[in-house]
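Tutorial, part two.
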Amino acid sequence: MTKEELALEIIERLKKEYPDAGCTLDYDHAWKLLVSVRLAAQCTDARVNVVVEKLYEKYPDVEALASAEPEEIEAIVRPCGLGKSKARDISACMRILKDQYDGKVPEDFDALLKLPGVGRKSANLIMGDVFGKPAIVTDTHCIRLTNRMGLVDGIKEPKKVEMALWKIIPPEEGSDFCHRLVYHGRDVCTARTKPYCDRCVLADICAKNGVADA
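Running the prediction step on this input gives:
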C-alpha cells in the first residue's frame, strides 16, 4: 500500500468513526479563535474555553481587547500558563487587527503568519476552520499519529510533517482529517498511556502493528 493509498483509507475510516469532529475550541468570531489558539499552547482546549469566557465578558470585541493593557489581559489568562507572553501577543495582535485590518482577521496565510504569536499551526487552523481553505494543522496529535500510522517516517518537526502530508492528503480533506486525529489521539491512540490498539479502527493498516507497507 502506498502512502497515498494508506492516507485515503485512514481518512475514510476516521470519517466513519468521528463524523462530527471539529475544532474543540469555542468561538463565534474569527478573532476569538485567534485568541484561543494562542492560549491553547501548552494548555488544554477545555481550560481555554473556560478562561476566554471571562476575557470576553470584559473585552467583548477587537477594539476593546486592543485597548486593554497586556497586564490586564494577563490577569485573566494566567490560568492557561505562560500568561505574560500570551497576553503580550494577544494585545499586539488585536492592535494590528484594529489598526490594519478594520478589526477583521486577514484571509491570507502569509498575513496571518506576520501576526504576533501566530505560527503555521495557528494559521492553518484559521484558514481551514474560519475560511474553509485547504489546511493541515500539525499539532502534537497529528505529529504523533501520522508517524505511528506510517504516513510520515520519523519526522517530528511540525513544518516538515505538514509538507509531507500535503503530498498525500487531498487538500479538501486536510482540515477535517486533522480534527479527527485530535479525537482519535485523545480517545484511542493516546500519548500518556499505551495506545488502545485493540479498539482502533486502523489497527489492521497501522505501521505501528507492522502491517502498513509504503
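Residues 30-129 form a domain with the Endonuclease III; domain 1 fold (CATH 1.10.340.30). In part three we will examine how such features are distributed along the chain.
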